[in-house]
Amino acid sequence: MKNRLVIFVAFVCCLCTMPGIVRAQLSVHQFDQLMKKIDDVLWYEKVGDIAHVDKVILCGPPRWKESNPTSMSAGNELKFRAYIFIPKSVDENKKYPLIVFPHSGVHADMDTYYAHIIRELIAQEYIVVAADYRGSTGYGAGTYNNIDYGGLENEDVYISRNYMVDNFDIVDGNRVGIMGWSHGGMITLMNLFNYPGQYKCGFAGVPVSDVIMRMGYASDSYRKIFSAKNHIGQTAKDNIAEYKRRSPVWHAEKLKDPLLIYTNTSDDDVNVVEVESMIRALKAEGKKFEYKIFERAPGAHSFDRLDTYESSKIRLDIYKFMGRYLKPNKPFGSVKELRKAAYKF
Predict the structure, then answer these.
(1) What is the architecture, at CATH level 2, of domain 56-210+247-343?
(2) Where in the chain are the domains?
(3) E strands, the chain, in order
(4) Which of 80, 142, 143, 231 sits a CA distance of 20 to 30 A from 58?
(5) pLDDT tens digits, residue range 240-286?
(6) Residues 326-343 pLDDT 10s
């Protein structure tokens, strides 16, 4: 641990003392890679007292669309990283439930923003896997430009699930849940819809639900992420079918497993109307699921991921839902227990 902290301090000092002209010459991706390395060290500091932390390299499907079909790498599987968090309290002779945890953000990554939530899951003796799927930041332009929003990123996350079940005897393949917020909530929905029976339950917080609808209220800069040549390459107007294929709301009929959805009327990122559309679609298909629409809960898009007492209360209800199906060894009995696990006091 001390060695890692020394490395972390060295990184920060290097960045802070770097001449401004040199910093300016760093590309966005080089800067992201540096920040990623720093944040990776922070994981050990923030959860290393209660969890074994590892990072592995896995393979997902080939690119959905090859930019150069005749290149040497055309058709090759794409490599991606995944974080693994295993409670230090596990008994090697027993099995434990697994949480698959897709991160949020169109171009983002699994970072220590989620450290307190990971601590809460570890305290209940969940094993956690979190993939930095294609399109994630911190790995250079190649991974960034392989974005496949609503597409093969879902398979990357599913592959991380299977990796844990197939390679760790302590993982109970019959007790696997998936949970995520925003883009991670979208991936949660798509995994439940595309791989029925592979998850015991799922939680989708403020999930992106209809990419077509999203294009209607999004900014031009956001829309351009999708119409860029390295991604879909067309606008929603030019190719409705492709945007529909990537939207959970158009796959509602596939739901077979327990699902909980939370949204907030004051959400300033994923407008509540998107999630309401998802809820209506599931109801129209006669699906059994649970949901709650919060009225202007403090925190807007992040209302149930904050470090406030109110957010902790909301997360306790989420964990109770997941616990019904995953049966963790040490479920929380109160908000006080949850907050002690997350913040140590």
Answers:
(1) 3-Layer(aba) Sandwich (3.40)
(2) 1-47, 56-210+247-343
(3) 51-60, 78-87, 96-100, 127-132, 171-181, 201-205, 259-264, 290-294
(4) 231
(5) 999 999 999 999 999 999 999 999 999 999 999 999 999 999 999 99
(6) 999 999 999 999 999 999
